[in-house]
Amino acid sequence: MQSTTFLEQLKQGFMPILASEHGKDVDYFILIIHWLMAALFVGWMAYFCYALFRFRKSANPKADYVGAKGTLANNAEIAVVIVEAVLLIAFAIPLWAKAVEEFPKESNATVMRLVAEQFSWQARYPGKDGVFGKQELKFVSDKNPLGYVEKDPAASDDRLSPPKDIHVPLIPIELDERNKRKPLSDEQKKVLKEVAEPYDNNKNGQLDTNEREKLTANDHKKLKDAGIALTFKPVIIHLTTKDVIHSFKVTAVRMTQDCMPGMSIPVHFTPTRVGKFNITCAQLCGNGHASMNALFVVDSPEDFDKWLAERTTSAAGGAPSFE
Amino acid sequence: MQSTTTTTTLDTHDHAPHHDPGFLRSYVFSTDHKVIGIQYGFTALMFLLFGFLLVMCMRWQIAKPGVPIPLVSGLLESLLGDVAKGGVMSPDLYNSFGAMHGTIMVFLAIVPLAFAAFGNFVVPLQIGAVDMAFPRVNMVSYQCFAGGGVVMFVSFFIPGGAAQAGWTSYSPLATIVPTHGQTFWLIGMVLLITSSLLGAVNFIATVIQLRAPGMTWMRMPFFVWTQFVTAFILLLAFPPLEAAGILQLVDKVLGASFFLPTGLVVSGKLYDVSGGGSPLLWQHLFWFLGHPEVYVLILPAMGVVSEIIACNTRKPLWGYKSLVYSVLAVGFVSFIVWAHHMYLTGMGTKISTFFQTTTMIISIPSVIILTCLFMSLWGGSIRFNTPMLFALAFLPMFGIGGLTGLPLGFNFSDLHLHDSYYVIAHFHYVVAPGTIFALFAGVYFWYPKMTGRYMSETLGKIHFWGSLIGMNLVFMPMFFQGLYGMSRRMSDGGATYALSNAANEGVVTALTGTVIKMNVFITHAAFLLLLAQIPFIINVFMSMFNGKKVESDNPWQATTLDWQTPTPPPHGNFTKEIVVHRGPYEYSVPGHPTDFTPQNAPEPKLVK
Amino acid sequence: MSHDHSSSHDPSHVDHNSPEYIQKTIKKYLAVGGILFGGTVLTVAMYYVHIPSVFWTVTIALLIATVKAGFVAAVFMHLSDERKMIYGVLICTVFFLIGLMGLTLWAMNDFPFFTLVDGKPA
Amino acid sequence: MEIPYAVKPRPDTGLYNAKLGIWLFLASEVMLFGGLFSSYILLRVGADLWPHGMVSIPVGTFNTFVLIASSVTVVMSWASLKLGRLGDFKKYMALTIACALGFLGVKSFEYHAKFTHYDVWFKDAATAEKYFKAAYGEEKGVEAARKLFVERFHLHNTKAVYEANQVQLPGHLEGNPLFATHRSLASAKKETFQFTPDAPFGTHDHPKPIEVKLSDVERLSAYVPKHSTYFAIYFTITALHGLHVLGGAIVLAYFLFTANTWWKKNPEQLANRVEVGGLFWHFVDLVWIFLFPIIYLL
Ligand code: HEA
Ligand code: HEA
Ligand code: CUA
Ligand SMILES: [Cu+2]
């Protein structure tokens, strides 16, 4: 138990700790909008106070029929229009398209199905085959509320998280930044190997999370020049719900997405640090809404594998599909 | 300018109808727009207070989850039973209060006060009409409203309690929640919508048909314009919600599934409906009204503020024409921005780009309106009476609320801010220190016309400063709570996510002590805000009997026609033929003998 | 209360209220009644003929309905020579109606590409 | 005190108050039915299966004719007033109201038929097959049930194979009860019930009643809103439309019964009122013009 002081929080800039790649952009975007708002607000307030003071009745007993002349107001309005247009066209639309709609390939991502219900969360992982077991409504029963087809071979290696305890691995990967996040070319692989050599304890030609922290500024520059981005394996979550609308919100990831009944909605993001975060349910879903939290744990790959190995397959529970 | 220096108190026998209509006809079943306006106003103020008291209970629960509410715990338990066991709010009760706070504030307090009450009392006077175009319809629309209010109110006391699915009443939750409160809510809404529709038809017809000779469109006071546009919004945006309400009622009562998809599993059982519906459809129909509705809340407020600012700066409004065009633009565009409440329902980039763009477009006329009002101050001779203080405070408060709409309006930042306290802070800044302040201003401003007496300035100023400070202390911290990740509609005030909660050991983004402590601070501030309303309540009632009498029919020396009538205006409003000669805000016209020239005054002799 | 029994003296209105004019419109009303009956017969006939394409079935049926509705509005409801004010109101209404239907339909069909496909990438 | 332009048009707008009022009201009605029609379209486009032929086209066509006729008579009644013929007015108005009542009568007959018509869904394929055979004969039973299903959902072109337990059996319960459900039968302590299946598709046969075990039944529903989204939207829209017809008829009847008084007092105002009432009436007709093809034909 600990508590953060006001000052500590202020240092953090009133934004909670960040754990995703696109979250940087979200924070930055929120920041610049607030600068714009502050500029407008301060400007107008200065004018406002001055006008109230200067034109109070005792100082100015006779009002002027015409009032303000000049183009200050028009200019301010035009400035607002321009800034809004820039924010919209240069930032919001492309950033949203990238962060929300541009999905990585499922084969290059950690995939899971997350199902919400009053008032809990549960995840299902497809296992090694990458395929979720089938479900059919006709198998719905008390024991098997979502109608899993138990005999489906694809289901045999599926794994189910305990309620409210969701894990994803933080797997370091390298990508070609210039070529729209494609895998590295052979040349780039060579550069990476060179840079990695001194740090690469397990000799896999890669940089794992701890090793990355040791890189010098010079190393970073080399990688950047080669167009290599050090990043992590993205996560794709298919969100569904059994009953009412819930909303999957992980503050640290800067991600909110409603879980709609009858739909399976995918979200994707790239985690950037290990840690324990909260999943908040952000849509009113009944009397347990306030306590419908869950742990969202970003593990190191080893921890994740260990955790997953302890999980079992079970027909009961897990995410429904809507075919 | 006859009636500017003397009070014309009318002898009822001269001007009222030939026979005394009796108490019921004059006060309960009246068809006089002024009486109906006052009925609306009074009922709405009661609901405003009631809505505030509901949220005070919620604030207590947020600050001190699980602790019995002081003062009223016994009352709550005896009235509501198990949901308030031991005077502690259960989550069910919290959800009921939350849903009803939103519903009551929006549909039973602000709309009736801003639109129906002020609109009824002031609009016919300002356009020089004898009454509304359809006085009997006017009466029926008040009765529908009162009926809706009663249904909503009664729903608290039925088994299971009032609606629990938020003011937005999203299906499937609204359908699945096992209380008939939702059914009451829907029936109440259908009545309220009917009332608003009748009112809207009446307002529009009145403005179009009953303007006095010479009252051209561009000579109408800005307040009339705002009411006119508001009426159009109500007329065309409400019916789809009525349709949606009927569909949800069929879901709820007859077991249909318009908004329920196939295969819902509720508490481990397949939900017994045919399925095939769409929860998104409800959201679309709701927000098709929901967004225009917020302009219904703000436009009349802007109208009130403009009247008061023009009068108390003693100069014309700056940019009357831009104001009119802006308000028309807001009205139009407000119909095509609704899905900015739905960015995170899984929408694609194309459609959300469309709605972001319209959302940004609609902020521009708002900016223009505010700019015009700010510029109107320049060169004025500003009188700081109570109505003016509230009107002035409206400007920055609405500014804060409106500006914080921008980060919500971009889907990319909404990704973080959606359904957090940032949203709560955003819209409360617009509706509470925004609209409510404008409405207070209106009450102080038109009270002398209604009663022939001023409200007390001293009590008024206490009310003003108390409210201004209180409101800001309540809502400003919520922005920070929201940015920090605190979600709305949390019956435990976020305690589940607090760092201090043992279950959050090691969770790095749990809500910090500061965020949680802000809850307590806000609740204290809300209590201060409540205290600050006491002088107002006293003022409203006491001034009726011992307020300072007005010394003329036009105590603020205003130009619009509402001040060119006897005080209070008789049945039929005007005692003389009204002909309008000029625009609405001819203050301080150079060369005129007084610093105001009423719209109906014949051309005065110029002084050198 | 006015006790004036004569019809309006407003010059622009005279012909619209004169008995001759009304007599003429009565013929129009009956003709439109005939058209409406005919349109209904046509629609029903179309159903029994069974056009194979769903698209054309819907389009034709709605087209006939629109034409019928147009006649009702234009003639029975006198929209063909109504005042400007009423056109204004109706144009606004149609604009918002199209907004409601069009945008809702669009929104319900614009989802990121594999939203509804059972969580399997398309 | 008197409201200006209550009878005579205001010169600059050319309208009297009530006419503007009714058009504004109709504008809001357009949005109301617009909301319902949008919902209909969305639900239908999003549905996997949407039934056809569940309502009788001849009956619907007849009602369409009735409403069109009433639209003609109501405008004639107004014209009669304009021509100064009170007697004709009364005749036409009475006809209009008769049409309205006729429409509502036919509608309630239609509703009643739906409320006593049932679908039965069986627990599983084997059970269903058993009952299909009992209903339509040993050899053709399954085929006949499937055919009914295929015709109902227009599935001629799909290759999908529908399992027997997805095929419901339509028909009537003994004694034609209203709104019976699985639960209501169970609470009446019935273990079996008699069920008369509908004729096989394309025939006018009268299948014999069969005895159905309640425990074999998964779901039983009359053709009521709970039955399916189709019936839900059908009943909601037509009932709302029916309420409009009823309301309009009441108002028109009021005009008819007070006509003499008004005619003496202010004939122009009477004509105005009838015009306004007529506008509403035409609108109700107009809604039906769209409803009829959408609900009955498409
Ligand atoms: C009267 C009410 C009102 C008004 C006027 C507004 C105005 C605006 N609102 Fe707000 N809004 C609500 C009431 C209102 N809103 C409510 C009730 C909700 C929550 C509903 C719920 O979920 O329960 C909400 C929610 C809401 C959301 C959804 C958030 C979410 O759920 O994630 C969004 C997103 O786009 C939004 C945007 C906007 C925008 C862009 C405006 C714009 O119109 C604002 C334009 C105004 C300006 C841009 C200010 C201009 C002023 C100046 C430039 C001068 C500056 C001077 C000084 C500051 C001194 N609002
Ligand atoms: C117009 C709308 C309106 C108004 C005015 C208010 C006013 C206030 N609201 Fe409300 N609020 C909503 C609309 C409104 N709210 C909505 C829509 C929601 C969302 C609901 C949902 O989640 O579904 C909400 C939710 C909401 C929450 C979040 C609950 C949650 O998410 O869990 C909170 C929390 O503090 C809150 C607080 C307040 C406070 C302190 C006020 C104060 O500003 C109140 C101040 C009131 C006064 C100053 C009244 C003074 C008047 C009188 C005293 C009358 C005098 C009488 C006579 C003279 C006769 N509101
Ligand atoms: Cu689940 Cu809120
Ligand atoms: Cu909005």
Question: If you had to describe this structure to a student in words, what would you say it looks like?
Answer:
The complex is a heterotetramer of chains A (323), B (608), C (122) and D (298). With 323 residues, chain A is an alpha+beta fold. Helix content of chain A is 32%, strand content 20%. Chain A contains 7 helices and 12 strands. In chain A, strand 1 (110-117) and strand 2 form a beta hairpin. In chain A, helix 2 (21-54) runs antiparallel to helix 3. The longest helix of chain A has 34 residues, at 21-54. With 608 residues, chain B is mainly α. Among the domains of chain B are: 28-232, Up-down Bundle (Cytochrome C Oxidase, Chain A); 557-608, no CATH class. Chain B contains 18 helices and 2 strands. Chain B has helices spanning 12-15, 22-28, 33-63, 73-80, 91-126, 135-154, 173-176, 181-209, 222-254, 279-313, 320-333, 349-376, 386-403, 405-409, 411-417, 421-451, 457-483, 513-546, and strands spanning 265-266, 269-270. In chain B, strand 1 and strand 2 (269-270) form a beta hairpin. The relative contact order of chain B is 0.11. By secondary structure, chain C is mostly helical. Chain C folds into 2 domains: 18-77; 82-109. Chain C has helices at residues 14-17, 19-49, 54-76, 84-109. Chain C starts with 13 loop residues before the first helix and ends in a 13-residue tail after the last helix. By secondary structure, chain D is an alpha+beta fold. Chain D has 2 domains: 17-37 and 54-115 and 228-297, Cytochrome c oxidase, subunit III, four-helix bundle (Four Helix Bundle (Hemerythrin (Met), subunit A), Up-down Bundle); 118-222, no CATH class. Chain D has a 5-stranded antiparallel sheet with strand order 4-3-2-1-5. In chain D, helix 8 (259-265) packs across helix 9 (267-297). The N and C termini of chain D lie far apart (54 Å). Chains in contact: A-B, A-C, B-C, B-D, C-D. Chain B binds chain D through residues 17, 130-131, 133-135, 137, 197, 200-202, 204-205, 208-210, 235-244, 246-247, 250, 254-258, 273-278, 281, 285, 288, 571-572, and chain D through 1-5, 10, 13, 15, 17-18, 20-21, 24-25, 27-36, 38-39, 42-43, 46-48, 221, 224-229, 232-233, 235-236, 240. The complex binds heme-A (2 copies), dinuclear copper ion (CUA) and copper (II) ion (CU). Residues 291, 294, 340-341 of chain B line the site of copper (II) ion (CU). Dinuclear copper ion is lined by residues 116, 119, 246, 281, 283-285, 289, 292 of chain A.
